[in-house]
From TrEMBL:
PANTHER family, per the entry: METHYLTRANSFERASE, RIBOSOMAL RNA LARGE SUBUNIT METHYLTRANSFERASE H
Gene3D superfamilies to which the protein is assigned, alphabetical: 3.40.1280.10
SUPFAM superfamilies per the UniProt record, alphabetical: alpha/beta knot
Record protein name field: Putative RNA methyltransferase At5g10620
Amino acid sequence: MLVTDVLNAVSSWFVGQRALPIRIITVGKKRSPGVQLLVDEYMTKLKHYCSVEDVQVRSNPKNARRDVRAQVDDEDMAAMNLIRSDDWVVMLDEHGLTIGSEEMAELIGDAGDTGASRLSFCIGGPYGHGRQIRKRANISIRLSSLVLNHQIALLVLIEQLYR
């Protein structure tokens, strides 16, 4: 696909629709410098088309030593505190719907028609998402039939948002 094709596809998401601001919430440890470099590059590209925000929620492995459920609940609460009541929430989960690039573009376009004020993507930590995020999500998708760690999932997501 040529760069002009990509730019036309991104622009077409917003023709006749308002471009929703995007927030990407990622649970996990500090990113490696290489991953952060790629995230920064794609975020710069995406900001030409819409407002996009990258928010990291630190996982707490000390809780996991005592109780994995406690860690997931803490991460769940921290992520929920970043989501507004009028957000359209997309949960990335290994058991979610399998979608391709075209369906991702449709999902983004359709979210603009829901009356939502922002599109929030949630990437879970090492033990997945908690009950509140699962209940709050408007849709659950998976980016691959492979299980991806949160850093790789973030890169795949932002590349697809740019695509």
